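Rotation project, supervised by the postdoc (A.L.). Task for the rotation student: set up a whole-complex structure prediction and record inputs and outputs verbatim in this book. Inputs entered:
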Amino acid sequence: MAEVHALAGTEVFEGRRDVVRSYGSLVIGALLREKSFRAGVIIIAFVAVGAMLAPAVAWLLGHGPTEQFRDTALTEMGLPTGPTLEFPLGADGNGRDVLVRTLYGARVSLAIAIPATTLAMIIGTAIGLVSGFLGGRIDRIVSQGIDIALSFPFIVTALSLLTLNRGADGKVLVAPSLVVVLIITLFSWTYFARLTRGLVLVLRRSPLVEAAQTIGASKAHIILREILPNIAPVILVYWAVQLPTNIVAEATLSFLGVGVQAPEPSWGTMIAEAQRSSLYQVQPWFLLGPGIALFLTVAGFNTLSAGLRNVLDPRRHSG
Amino acid sequence: MAIFSVAGLHVAFGMSKVVQGVSFAVEPGKTLAIVGESGSGKSASLLGATGLLPPAATVSGSVLHKGEQLLGLPAREMRKRRGAEIGFIFQDPLSNLHPLKTIGEQIGEAVTAHRRVGRTELRELVLGLLADVGIRNPAARINDYPRQFSGGMRQRVMIAAAIALNPGLIIADEPTTALDVTVQASILDLLKRIQQDHGAAMIFVSHDLAVVSDIADDVLVMRSGQVVEQSSARVIYHAPRQAYTQELLGAARLGGLAARAPEPLPPPPPKPNLLSISGVWRSFAGRSRVGGRLIRPVLQDVSFDIGENEIVGLVGESGSGKSTIGRLVAGLDQPDEGKLSMRERVYSRPGPGGIDIDRQLRSEIQVVFQDPYASLNPRRRVRSILAEPFIVGTQLDAVAIRRRVQELVLDVELNEDLLDRFPAQLSGGQRQRVAIARAIALEPSLVVADEPVSALDVTTQVKIIRLLQTLRERKKLSLLFISHDLGVVSELCDRVIVLDKGLAVDAGETAKVFGAPRHPYTRKLIDAIPGKSLQESTMPQKVAAHG
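Outputs recorded:
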């Protein structure tokens, strides 16, 4: 079947034009031809543009994210109105604009999940690289550490950490969003570390690394220049896989009332409010707004990661 | 009347045409060999003819099996014929055998896929087949798993499955390529015997004319999807018409070693000693079947020297410990006992801190690995791969490094255009040249070459061997050349060391060791080299077209 493999290779690499193009542009070209990657990018771009335009929408409608319009947005019974021209997605129980709050919520979700996932990736990859490459005692200690970190239950630990964040007077010591970022990082670096360690263990004994050893390359050089570039695509794919999980984690914490604090809008708190007050029965968009936004974001990143994996995963095009 | 005939076969993957108008036919009891280098379309034409290519491939032409057109038959009909009337044997028995099923079950499946057979009858059938393919004590081994068999034995199992239903046609695609030379000889014998017993037709695909010389009645030489020459084996081996066939013949080292051994040179002056290995032992911890630890000795008291500017060959079958020696010499592994020294300075001995290699010595010993696909970083351009030794090992500035890289590329006879490519954009031979260039970058005194040509086509092998010879002259290199291929070793090496199960059983000047083998194991290795039958008949004049 060697011929078949060779063909798959020439398809990507044939011709002089391609020879002068960089590896990066080849990858980007292949990514853009990948349907699921394109779909993911479009969905995420839609969410990101929404998040960016949140202040503009708020200005156009004249509703701030935390402003209450009890006169216009609530009926005489005190129930929120459904979608109208003034409130495109209706209002919530406090007379706030659901659309504006959903758009601002996107900012919160991305502003927490992206730094948390990136931080977890950096920490996890660094630890995995060192432990996988050095092996021996260091590897055993790190592996034990990962097992211990994984054995903590997420919700319980997060709840207690956030409770500890309150001083004697009941005021928060550190901004809760920062604590949420740290908690999510704490719970997701282990996955990156395990993945990286496994990949490094395979590469460490490969001729690639041994060839670098025989020319006298230092350990740091081998890790950073020979191993890291070869595992980076897999880790990037995993970043995109982990990100939606972390968006949901942030929503979960906010839903439980320990993440982003009211009245600041977050999808988690919005869904929690809708659910607690049962007002979604009168004004379904109260729940659907943040719900659909959350679904779109998660689906977008999952689609994107599927496309990334199709193109970048080295197991797909060996040789 | 031909049992299987292919006419005007075309196979294409999208725009690229892999097979262009190939025709051949094979009669019962005869063997047709299809020979060509990788990418020549030899496998693609057979897989295409039997409907085994992925749907992305377009196949056209005519394929007649027992007078019936196979192309365009529904998949169901094709499946009925495959296995029952056409038996297949592929290159890598390990990846074609299910690791979690016993070999008895797997051979049995070949039967039950086509026929209803009672359990006892099936068992009898499988036992008979195992005995037929030369597996000793079949009743004891029928319930073993593939991992409990050696490579050669696994290939016998594959053959048993292929002949289970007594097919009229056997297709063998490089069935011996992954095997040691002695095992290869026994598998070739087995195939020949089985074919005669069963009166089947056989199509044997190989990249090596020597391998098929003992077995083929007709030979078809392919290149870039087209037939170069097609004739009876007699004509191909004794009076080839096409230059390309002659080139392949020249590369195939037909007629064994004697004809090829270098003309007796005046005894070379004793060379000053460069590397010495003395009393080296090495063993690896394995696991025995009951789960306890088992120490598997790999090297047992191995000692030898390599002189300045000398090429020493290290031959043996897989598992003989030859690669371990290479790794020890390169400082990638540590001996359990004994020591290695370079110019009298000991650099590797047992115990912690036993490997003591400074920057100077690092650049003195370099390695060329077997698989250039795995040893070149796929994410980096050739230019950056070749600049690496200079960045790590010297204080040169960017301009000087650039110049040195360009010199290196010329040294290994590559085009400068290739500098901006990635390894995936190079052919196998080009990749191995890049690997060699990297190894000679720091002007080492010793290069360890671990099977550097075994992953390459025969014609490419010849060119790489010549490059190594040139480099040895020009750069005053010594070479530790590790190979299982006695032909290559006899052509290149001044001295040779024969390893068997971790013991150096024979050593000396190449011509002497191979010309008059003293040790029975050396004798066995030499006897196993394919192409014996031709050597005994009239040898053609050594072919001129050599590259």
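Student's summary: Residues 1-20 of chain A have pLDDT under 50 and may be disordered.
Supervisor addendum: The two ends of chain A are 12 Å apart (CA to CA).
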